[in-house]
């Protein structure tokens, strides 16, 4: 959960940012449609007002109706006006015009009201009763520029609001995720097997069902793991005694049996001895309890108790490792049994540091692809993969010490490194051994 919360926050932030951008685009489009209509109406009203003002002036000035007069513009080339006589024939005659007006009439026929001409927005109104028309025009570029200026300002304002909303929503999301972060921190240090272990009251009322469900799940998990541990310990105890009896009977049978049967009886005794070692390792593994009992273990004193017939163990007299003795014995029993079964006759054991134990045998070893497959299976806790019970149990022991089991590459034989550093994790948190 602690690893997922930051990614959840990032995904929410990206979603909020995308939502803010889409919202800004949608609002800007709506503003564009609304502003375009409103600005055009405002500009049309301005044109109409200017035309009506000029019409009143021309009606009061008959001398303005003489020959063509080009009046110097008082504004830019974005505005123009024309006084046109449509009564002189099929071709209208310009009577007066601004300096930036076209040299031909805006319309060949009298056209009162608004119209769109090439490059211009025109408003026409009649002057007098002689077929004269006054046209006041504004360039369409000016109209578009006015619309775009309003839309741009509105879009900037919308984007600013969206950015503020995004920052506010991101802050709110972070605040809402904070109780979940605290809950994940509490779960990380929560001891499932502690008497009366509970997560306690939640920070938010909405988290109460989650707290309750997690407490119930932890109780069920602890009970099931304890039952499996107890079963494994009892099963190992129940198997140990008959296996010891079988070994004794086979030893007697080897002395009394005909020479032709002795090789077969020896193979049976070897298989029984291996099964006995596995049972002893399982017993040590599950008798160790939940808490580690670390101490400096003298390997020279431990290995004689783990001696495997037919395997020469080489270790320095002063070799020591910081580990739980029972768990270390379980791991070594399985690793040594693996080496013997795969054809090794000698195993060299070293301690590069007080928290590292390295083993290398003289067996045939494995190819590089198989070694990588074994390491990947251990890293993924794949108990049903190609690793086998020996490596899996040793891997659990390393994990219980807060370390890991590595399979380094070597030029001859097979090498295993037990890293036993750190504080470790509860052994009952490891997967149950395969049946």
SSE blueprint:
Elements: H1 4-59, E1 69-71, E2 79-85, E3 93-98, E4 113-117, E5 120-127, E6 132-139, H2 140-188, H3 208-256, H4 262-287, E7 295-298, H5 299-302, E8 312-315, E9 320-323, H6 325-341, E10 346-353, E11 356-361, H7 368-379, H8 388-400, E12 404-406, E13 415-419
Helix pairs in contact: 1-2, 3-4, 4-6, 6-8
Key phrases:
single chain, 435 residues, alpha+beta, Helix Hairpins, Heat Shock Protein 90, 5-stranded mixed beta sheet, 8 helices, 13 strands, 16% strand, disordered C terminus
Q: What's a concise summary of this model?
A:
This protein is α+β, with helices and mostly antiparallel strands. 52% of the residues lie in helices and 16% in strands.
Question: What is the domain tally?
Answer: 3
Shape: rod-shaped
Quick one: how many beta strands?
13
Largest sheet: 6 strands, mixed
Q: How would you spell out the order of helices and strands?
A: HEEEEEEHHHEHEEHEEHHEE
Strand fraction: 15-25%
Structural class: alpha+beta
Helix percent band: 40-55%
Tally the helices: 8
Report what the structure shows.
23% of the residues are buried. The chain starts with a helix and ends in a 16-residue tail after the last strand. The chain is built from eight helices and 13 strands. It has three domains: 4-148, no CATH class; 192-287, Helix Hairpins, CATH 1.10.287; 292-435, Histidine kinase-like ATPase, C-terminal domain (Heat Shock Protein 90, 2-Layer Sandwich), CATH 3.30.565. Strand 4 (113-117) and strand 5 form a beta hairpin. The protein is α+β, with helices and mostly antiparallel strands and 435 residues long. Strands 1-3-2-6-5-4 form a six-stranded mixed beta sheet. The protein has a five-stranded mixed beta sheet with strand order 8-10-11-13-12. Strands 7-9 form a two-stranded antiparallel ribbon.
